[in-house]
Amino acid sequence: MTDEIQDHTAMAEEEPVHEAMAGDEAVVTPVAQTAKLVLKRGGVLTDIEYVLHPPATIGRFDPSVGPIDVDLGTQPEGAYVSRKHAKIVCDDGIWKVVDLGSSNGTFVLRDDFERTDEAELIDGQEFALGNARFVFQLN
User: Fold this and answer.
1) Distance between CA atoms of residues 12 and 6, nearest Å
2) In a 10 Å sphere around its CB, with 0-12 CB exposed, 13-18 middle and 19+ buried, how is residue 69 labelled?
3) What is each CA distance from 50 to 1, 39, 104, in whole angstroms?
4) Which end of the chain is more exposed for a tag (fewer CB within 10 A), N or C?
5) Residue 79 has what pLDDT?
6) Confidence (pLDDT) at 3
7) For residue 139, what pLDDT is reported?
């Protein structure tokens, strides 16, 4: 009985994994449970980082709308960010940015910035909320 409890405990402590196929073999990679956003200013990464624990709402705090997870109200770029601008989610190991009906839009950098309602985020992906630019990084 003790071995069964230890086995169950060990399984519960393991990191979740994401499986993908590479040829005929499944490739198992750990799923990051947290990520961070690094603010870009003038095309350069700053030392301003926001740790994300999904789901995480990004915007500007306003008592009439309630709390948010990432408050950009103190940043100059925050002037063009809605009170509840976007949400970062992680479903089955896939990280996404979801626009919450913002006025100034959510954009993902591909060949150029493209406005989006929802987009997958990969490590190093650049995106913008209004004119606030970020780089998404997995921890």
Assistant:
1) 10
2) middle
3) 44, 8, 21
4) N
5) 92
6) 47
7) 86
Stated as kind and residue range, the H or E segment containing 22 is: strand 17-22
CA proximity to 72, closest of 112, 102, 95:
102
Residues 6+ apart with CB under 8 A from 139: 32, 33, 34, 35, 36, 51
Structure tokens at 92: 């089955």
pLDDT for position 34: 87
- Give the C-alpha separation, 138 to 39, whole Å: 14
DSSP, collapsed to helix, strand or coil, labels residue 3 as: helix
Rg (CA), the chain: 18
Structure-token pair, residue 83: 């009170």
Distance CA 124, CA 137 (A): 5
Q: Which two tokens stand for residue 72?
A: 């950009």
